[in-house]
Amino acid sequence: MNNKKFFPLLFISTIFCFCFPSSLFAEESSTVNNNGIIDLRILETTDLHAALVNYDYYQTKTDNTIGLVKTASLIHQARSEAVNSLLFDNGDHLKGNPLGEYLVRIRGIQKGRIHPVYRAFNYLKYDAITIGNHEFNYGLKFLTTVLKGLKMPIVNANVYSVKKNKPYFKPYVILKRSVVDKQGKEHQLNIGVIGFMPPQIMRWDKANLEGKVIARPIVESAKEFVPIMKAEGADIIIALAHTGIDSEPYHPETENAVYYLSDIPEIDAILAGHSHSVFPGPTFKNLPLANINEGKIKGKPVVMAAAFGSRLGIIDLQLEVKDGTWKVLNSRSFTRPIADEYGEPLVKTDKKLFKLIKPEHQETVDFLKKLGI
Ligand SMILES: [Zn+2]
User: Fold this and answer.
1) How many Å lie between the centroid of ligand 1 and the Cα of residue 254?
2) Helix 68-81 vs helix 351-370: crossing angle, to nearest 10
């Protein structure tokens, strides 16, 4: 590592070290033979709502508490600290600010052009994404058109095509990745990734969806697909769950189903979202069977990274592979913010990403100016 790289890294890790110990599993790893022990870091963005830039379009000024151009710096940093990592987006990323509206209602996405949100995802090399309920707000045609610009898989297992009576999207993928254990030895890991969203879409987007798709209950859909994923060779399963956390008794219409997804033994980690909350965090301190220090619900790692790119969600999994069988030995979940409580930035802007999405950002700013906003 050269000094140029080392000093900024040291500086950044100094900022975070008070809450994020550098070796999360130090106790375990010093006492066991490290052969076949793999640290795998899972990164989450969720509910971006088209907040690509650290800019408030309503107040026409910089806002350092939002924006994927900021979260991107946390992503680069979190990746650089880990030997093995994966990055996922948990949905509700196309709509929610004037940029998203401008692209659909005024400018449109021309043939061959990639939506700037998906251009950003391609640049950041997400491993897979799911979609949220708001992705349906502009209609199925718009969604299926813009999804073509994505260079990574998109998964959802509980929205079904009425005509075909099967999942409208790819319900899951099994990502094949080469991972390195603590002794430097390579192993092939098959990572099953499955996605869900609230069944309420049929009410919220009735005009866009009725007669075309139906939504099935989240937990029932998970129970249907996880055995298939296992049979197809998934060593671990990660749920991209565009749904919140609530311990109210489960029923098929449950909107926030993470609490009950965590009961499914084959699911090893859950990325939560939709409710714009922070897990682990004080909001959930009274949630039964939750461990706020370790970021677990019923012993299962869960993370929810608020919204608008304000935080990056991180799950550190420690896996063990023995004779081709994988198991989770330990985990810790936490989130990192892009700004402090006063709105002061904790990270720099990813300038390359900003340059990539600047045309649409500038067009939106200019359009709002013309309107006199
Ligand atoms: Zn949502």
Assistant:
1) 13
2) 170
Report d(CA 75, CA 68) in Å as an integer: 10
372 alpha carbon to ligand 1 midpoint, in Å?
31
Cβ(167)–Cβ(157) under 8 Å? yes
CATH number given to 33-370: 3.60.21.10
pLDDT given for residue 6 in this prediction: 39
Q: Is the C-alpha dihedral spanning 55, 124, 169, 43 positive or negative?
A: negative
Q: What is the pLDDT of residues 55-70, one digit of tens each?
A: 999 999 999 999 999 9
Which residues, chain by chain, have CB under 5 Å from ion ligand 1? 92, 132-133, 274
Where is pLDDT greater, at 12 or 196? 196
- Confidence (pLDDT) at 11: 41
pLDDT band at 373 (very low <50, low <70, confident <90, very high): low
Tell me the C-alpha distance between 195 and 228, whole Å: 14
The 10 Å Cβ neighbour count of residue 202 is 16
Distance of CA 275 from the midpoint of ligand 1 (Å) = 7
pTM exceeds 0.85 for this model? yes
Residue given tokens 């700037």 in the structure block: 116
